[in-house]
Specification:
Elements (H helix, E strand, L loop, with lengths): L2 E4 L19 H13 L5 E5 L5 E7 L7 E2 L3 E9 L8 H15 L4 E7 L9 H6 L3 E5 L4 E7 L8 E2 L1 H4 L8 E5 L5 H15 L4 E5 L3 H5 L8 E5 L2 E4 L5 H9 L1
Length: 248
């Protein structure tokens, strides 16, 4: 498999693996706009030359849109290989490329979000463990911070205090989200419309800066749904899933 790094020079012509539509699709335009603003912060987006979900996205942890303390580390936003690309070692290829690049940049190691059991849109803990990652912190809702230190004396990353006990005061359904995930551009408005049509108390909070993300009341910032103050899920939903959740 050949891979290509997406940069400002080729962003417009390259496909974004997690959103295969054309550039006119709101999901693609939203994601590309978010990427364009992050490249200056050191973000790397490495993907397969083939169209499909096979890519890794990472950024210096100081600039990550998650509430963590991990100075000197590289944070992996997303490592996603699915469909026909699975089972060929591409995940290892992408991770190894991230490791090599991070070492060249003098980083202490890598960190990434996961959970004890695989959750949608989070890294597979079995894969992480196989690759030498370890859990270094865990929030009350079971979201874990995993790390791969490049040296045994490296400090352990940790969650900021605001994210260790995910809870908010607001009642009803409250969704925190960013434009990092392209699906949000399509499905957040769907939830807003569904909630309005069904008389469901709902508010979507769009996190629009690194500072807001690093002080969010949840480890997962690209999509975190709360109900009556309690964290529920990080799984993106369409109208049917949302109503099913509400109706039990």
């Amino acid at each position: 498999m050949d891979y290509i790094r997406v940069t400002m020079d080729n962003l417009e012509k390259e496909h974004i693996c997690c959103a295969i539509s054309n550039n006119k699709d709101v999901q693609v335009s939203s994601k590309k706009a978010w990427l364009a603003e992050r490249f200056g912060d050191g973000l790397v987006f490495l993907k397969s030359v083939e169209r499909g979900k096979c890519f890794v996205e990472y950024i210096p942890a100081e600039n990550a849109w998650v509430p963590i303390l991990a100075d000197g580390y590289m944070y992996i936003d997303c490592l996603w290989v699915s469909g026909s690309f699975k089972g060929h070692g591409y995940s290892s290829d992408l991770l190894n490329a991230c490791i090599g690049d991070s070492k060249e940049k003098g980083k202490k190691g890598l960190c990434i979000l996961a959970a004890a059991k695989k959750k949608p849109f989070l890294a597979d803990p079995k894969f992480l463990k196989h690759k030498g990652f370890r859990v270094c912190d865990e929030a009350d809702n079971g979201i874990q911070l995993w790390y791969l230190p490049f040296g045994e004396n490296a400090d352990k990353p940790q969650f900021r205090e605001c994210a260790k006990h995910p809870h908010i005061k607001e009642q009803g359904y409250v969704l925190y989200y960013t434009s990092q995930c392209p699906f949000n551009a399509k499905y957040v408005p769907v939830l807003e419309q569904t909630a309005g049509e069904n008389g469901i108390p709902f508010r979507a909070i769009h996190i629009e800066s690194r500072e807001e993300a690093q002080n969010a009341p949840t480890p997962v910032t690209n999509y975190a749904l709360f109900h009556d103050g309690e964290y529920i899920t990080n799984e993106q939903m369409n109208d049917k899933k949302f109503l099913k959740l509400i109706n039990g």
